[in-house]
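User: Predict the structure for this protein chain, please.
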Amino acid sequence: MQLTLKPATTADLPLLQLWRNDPAVRAMSRLQHEFDAEATRRWVFEGGRRLYLAWDDGRPLGFVSLEQRRQGPECEVSIAVAPEMRGLGMGSKILAMADKVASGAPLVAQVRIENIASLATFRVVGYVETSRDDSYVYFRKE
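Assistant: Here is the predicted structure, written as structure tokens:
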């Protein structure tokens, strides 16, 4: 397996919209409504977010998003794995690649407390839980 991350392009928008609107992804996202094509374009290309697709041998596996925090040096990281690739350990592989594109910024994450797979993924990759509330677990990786 030769996993690579490539910055999202306009050609990737239909696939990203499909993944973003997947019911399992929406259920674990802060924004749980469906995105139309224009909302997907804004989500990918506006607001200080850098979105990368993970590829292996020409096959898209998922994406990682890095969003610069308004205050402080941190980037908030989020990931999604293509539905057909879930349960194969891709999440941890994709998340581990985020370090390579984060430009040395500390990474933080907010994971829904019921998202057992993502909680395990962030821990496996070395993120440390910093706090939690009734809805989310907060992680950090230096």
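The longest strand covers residues 59-68.
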